[in-house]
């Protein structure tokens, strides 16, 4: 084991050893109010967990509801200050690359990874980290236990530095080795504050007929949560992540019953996948639907519509306030930790069109009305 760098007075444990490390100098606060650089100290509460992928729309979020924002792929001092002024946490994106998976069993690799993330949190005045890996790891691979150890060590060190910091981990819509991600979700859940369940891209591996279908079908979505709960993971350690986007599928054939046959695009052992389509932001879905008729699939509790583009029939599957209410309502009833979405920037925040502004507002209004301070 090696020495670390933390604040001069801080002593923490990592992997069973006592390690003390002097931190790099804390950078000056860039906020208009110095207290906005302080970490949010709110105790555990119900979450509205938002991924931000752009640096030009976040001011338009409903900050009366947002509790945590993940800066996904960028950093903004202005966003950090603004979120803290609204009592919301801002956390890092903790990425583990495919090339790094094989190194997860190595304690020195994990030490370096945690050191890097901690230094970044301190430098940027952040409140924690959201660990997003999404790489395939077989059940018997030593990297599986290495990943669990990484989450455990990250949480321990982050909490040692700031007991109110937040460490979360993204998991697939089901714990059943989705896309080859055979993670030890039970022990990962015990090691961090909560799991963000990505209840979308449920057609990444299509083993049945190669047809277009719902991105987040209600029965499939809730079935995934039931499996997590059966594993003994408490409901208050699960945040329901929903899609604020959809999939546009070019149809090879569209039957009289609206069944859209799609191109066979294999993925990790499945003959077909949603890669036959393309992801589309909610604002663009609403634009495409202007000349089409919204339809409803009552089995999947999901809207869709057909449209023409370039002389070909397409079928769009997506979620809107009606379909999301079924999911949000279940999350509240079951006592989940909260809800969130991928991602907060798919809506149209710039238009002056009253109809489009209403569509944007309705998406935010559909979120559960949690008491933000509780």
UniProtKB/TrEMBL annotation:
Compartment list: Lysosome
GO biological process: chitin catabolic process; oligosaccharide catabolic process
Record-linked PROSITE patterns: GH18_1, GH18_2
A molecular function (GO) term: chitin binding
SMART domains per UniProt: Glyco_18
Record's signal peptide: 1-20
InterPro entries referenced in this protein's UniProt entry, alphabetically: Chitinase_II/V-like_cat (IPR011583), Chitinase_insertion_sf (IPR029070), GH (IPR017853), GH18_Domain-Containing (IPR051887), Glyco_hydro18_cat (IPR001223), Glyco_hydro_18_chit_AS (IPR001579)
One protein family per Pfam: Glyco_hydro_18
Listed GO CC annotations: extracellular space; lysosome
Keyword terms, alphabetized: Glycoprotein, Glycosidase, Hydrolase, Lysosome, Signal
Domain GH18 per the UniProt entry, residue ranges: 1-374
Main location: other
Described function: Involved in the degradation of asparagine-linked glycoproteins. Hydrolyze of N-acetyl-beta-D-glucosamine (1-4)N-acetylglucosamine chitobiose core from the reducing end of the bond, it requires prior cleavage by glycosylasparaginase.
Similarity comment text for this entry: Belongs to the glycosyl hydrolase 18 family.
PANTHER family the record matches: DI-N-ACETYLCHITOBIASE
Name of the protein in its database record: Di-N-acetylchitobiase
Organism: Branchiostoma belcheri
């Amino acid at each position: 084991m090696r020495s670390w760098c933390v604040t001069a007075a801080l002593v923490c444990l990592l992997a069973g050893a006592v390690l003390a490390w002097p931190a790099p100098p804390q950078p000056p606060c860039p906020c208009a109010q110095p207290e906005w650089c302080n970490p949010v100290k709110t105790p555990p509460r119900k979450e509205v967990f938002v991924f931000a992928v752009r640096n030009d729309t976040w001011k338009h979020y409903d900050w009366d509801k947002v509790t945590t924002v993940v800066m996904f792929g960028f950093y903004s001092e202005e966003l950090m200050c603004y979120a803290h002024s609204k009592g919301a946490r801002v956390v890092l994106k903790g990425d583990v690359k495919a090339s790094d998976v094989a190194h997860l069993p190595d304690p020195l690799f994990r030490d370096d990874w945690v050191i890097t993330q901690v230094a970044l949190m301190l430098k940027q005045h952040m409140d924690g980290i959201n660990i997003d890996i999404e790489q395939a790891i077989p059940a018997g691979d030593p990297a599986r236990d290495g990943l669990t150890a990484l989450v455990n060590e990250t949480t321990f060190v982050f909490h040692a530095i700031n007991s109110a910091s937040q460490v979360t981990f993204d998991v697939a819509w089901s714990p059943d080795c989705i896309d080859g991600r055979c993670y030890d979700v039970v022990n990962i859940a015990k090691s961090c504050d909560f799991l963000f369940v990505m209840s979308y891209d449920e057609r990444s591996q299509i083993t049945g007929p190669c047809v277009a279908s719902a991105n987040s079908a209600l029965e499939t979505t809730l079935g995934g949560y039931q499996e997590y709960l059966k594993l003994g993971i408490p409901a208050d350690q699960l945040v329901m992540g929903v899609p604020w986007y959809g999939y546009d599928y070019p149809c090879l054939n569209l039957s009289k019953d609206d069944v859209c046959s799609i191109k066979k695009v294999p993925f990790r052992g499945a003959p077909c996948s949603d890669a036959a389509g393309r992801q589309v932001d909610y604002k663009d879905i609403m634009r495409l639907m202007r000349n089409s008729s919204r339809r409803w699939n009552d089995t999947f509790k999901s809207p869709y519509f057909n449209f023409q583009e370039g002389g070909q029939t397409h079928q769009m599957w997506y979620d809107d306030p009606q379909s999301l209410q079924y999911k949000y309502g279940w999350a509240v009833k079951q006592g989940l930790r909260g809800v969130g979405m991928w991602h907060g920037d798919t809506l149209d925040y710039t238009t002056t069109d009253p109809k489009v502004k209403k569509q944007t507002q309705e998406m935010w209004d559909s979120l559960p009305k949690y008491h933000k301070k509780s």
